[in-house]
Amino acid sequence: xxxxxxxxxxxxxxxxxxxxxxxxxxxxxxxxxxxxxxxxxxxxxxxxxxxxxxxxxxxxxxxxxxxxxxxxxxxxxxxxxxxxxxxxxxxxxxxxxxxxxxxxxxxxxxxxxxxxxxxxxxxxxxxxxxxxxxxxxxxxxxxxxxxxxxxxxxxxxxxxxxxxxxxxxxxxxxxxxxxxxxxxxxxxxxxxxxxxxxxxxxxxxxxxxxxxxxxxxxxxxxxxxxxxxxxxxxxxxxxxxxxxxxxxxxxxxxxxxxxxxxxxxxxxxxxxxxxxxxxxxxxxxxxxxxxxxxxxxxxxxxxxxxxxxxxxxxxxxxxxxxxxxxxxxxxxxxxxxxxxxxxxxxxxxxxxxxxxxxxxxxxxxxxxxxxxxxxxxxxx
Length: 380
Fold this sequence. Notes:
This protein has helices at about 15-20, 30-35, 40-55, 70-80, 95-105, 120-130, 155-165, 180-185, 215-235, 245-255, 280-290, 315-320, 335, 350-360, and strands spanning about 5-10, 60-65, 80-85, 115-120, 135-140, 170-180, 190-200, 240-245, 265-270, 270-275, 295, 305, 325-330, 340-345, 360-365, 370-375.
């Protein structure tokens, strides 16, 4: 018996990342004005292409999707036969309403799985209609992806999908999380559990929800991290330092009396902040004037992502300009206990291969203390 698979692409998912908007909910027009271009189709096609080339010959599938850029175009481009187009948007610009209407139509076709491309906002829209009626699997394309339905990369998602079709994986409850983008843009991290959905249980290639670490011992370690990074700044006075997003980097900045954006990318030169909350264009312009650069990052707890989640301003063009060897990674030992890999998903297969060749990163875990942590990229 063939498996019936629903397929939805959110065409605007992730557009706000490169231009520093930290999401696309409610700001699509602004993102476009700032030069944002769609990325979801590329991510979806990357997953589908990997699946077709490496796994499809062993599977029998009937595909159900939406007209145009919400699924039909991507499947056609890869050469996948569509069983049925169940919905067509009435407007050229798609919205959450179109996603929900597509889900209602898909529920009429006895699906085994709903495969979608988007971020946490897309997952929320889908689960509002689907609830627990069928399992979900997400191709990561958003700025915010904290929910437990996403594969860690498009390529990893292809492998998960194949394993599911071959009935080798189990279904279980997963968390649908989402971040308030309005507060996020103001520097406040307000993430909440939105719903419990059905997802695929696969501990290696499916990301888990973000874990928060708060303890006295961690605070002491962060003090040491701040002291270590302070020395780095003093020892490299000719370098521009880019401080990444997240609580650990923010703590370091505060201890060093450096003005910092909690959820953005800031530029520091000679111990002073010269630019805040930079987008891709601003970063590239700045890097033209500062040939010596170091990038300070901290992985997302439990997920382990350094690049590809919450910092899409750090595009392949930006990372290539900085250089992999100029990335400084900091983390507390407590965070690393539940972070077996440092994960990278730049969206550029060639750049991901360069990270894979590194095999591991030295992570600063205290004052002059380092730990070796393996890298996991699309070359899983």
